[in-house]
């Protein structure tokens, strides 16, 4: 069942952020745009490349009013150990949420029950905590965080301009569409 258009269920968890352990809950996803990026496990291979790439986009995302959260089924302690031992992960400034109970991974429907690990899932939530986009990749396929910037700009544009939609490959400032009977069969 799709999570698009649904508000995320309540949860509470421990996280690691910039040298500190913090509490995070579903309430943190409200009041601003959020990117929630699930990955299988700390101390692995594709995961650090993705998380470092996400950090490379972090300032741009922050400029768009977006907060970033990464989530795996590891603990917040493991996140700290990985942060302290990996050059790639040591750069991360965003919140790394621990989900050893698998609660958050189940809420977002990315848990591989057999493995006990999260799939590679990326979610964009609006300021009400409602899911606007979902991307889930197979374990061996890394994601490109630069695509999030355009997706968020499009989601923000559509939210701020009811009645307009963004076509494929839309970039900020480009022409949008106004769905109507006149457009049917003419695109």
UniProtKB/TrEMBL annotation:
Residue ranges of domain Thioredoxin in the record: 2-157
Localization per record: Cytoplasm
GO BP terms in the entry: cell redox homeostasis; cellular response to stress; hydrogen peroxide catabolic process; response to oxidative stress
Protease keyword on record: no
GO molecular function annotations of the record: NADH-dependent peroxiredoxin activity; thioredoxin peroxidase activity
Reactions catalysed: a hydroperoxide + NADH + H(+) = an alcohol + NAD(+) + H2O
Keyword vocabulary terms for this entry: Antioxidant, Cytoplasm, Disulfide bond, Oxidoreductase, Peroxidase, Redox-active center
GO cellular component: cytosol
Protein name: Alkyl hydroperoxide reductase C
Species: Listeria booriae
């Amino acid at each position: 069942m799709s999570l698009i258009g649904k508000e995320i269920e309540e949860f509470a968890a421990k996280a690691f952020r910039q040298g500190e352990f913090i509490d995070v809950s579903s309430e943190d996803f409200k009041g601003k745009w959020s990117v929630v990026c699930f990955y299988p496990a700390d101390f692995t291979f594709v995961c650090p490349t993705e998380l470092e790439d996400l950090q490379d986009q972090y300032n741009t995302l922050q400029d768009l009013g977006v907060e970033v959260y990464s989530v795996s089924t590891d603990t917040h302690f493991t996140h700290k150990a990985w942060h302290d031992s990996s050059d790639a992960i040591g750069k991360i400034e965003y919140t790394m949420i621990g989900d050893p109970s698998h609660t958050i991974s189940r809420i977002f429907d990315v848990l591989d029950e057999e493995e006990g690990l999260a799939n590679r899932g990326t979610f964009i939530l609006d300021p009400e905590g409602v899911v606007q986009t979902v991307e889930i990749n197979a374990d061996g396929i890394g994601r490109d965080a630069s695509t999030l910037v355009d997706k968020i700009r499009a989601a923000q544009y559509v939210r701020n301009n009811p009645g307009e939609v963004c076509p494929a490959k839309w970039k900020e400032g480009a022409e949008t569409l106004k769905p109507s009977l006149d457009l049917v069969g003419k695109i």
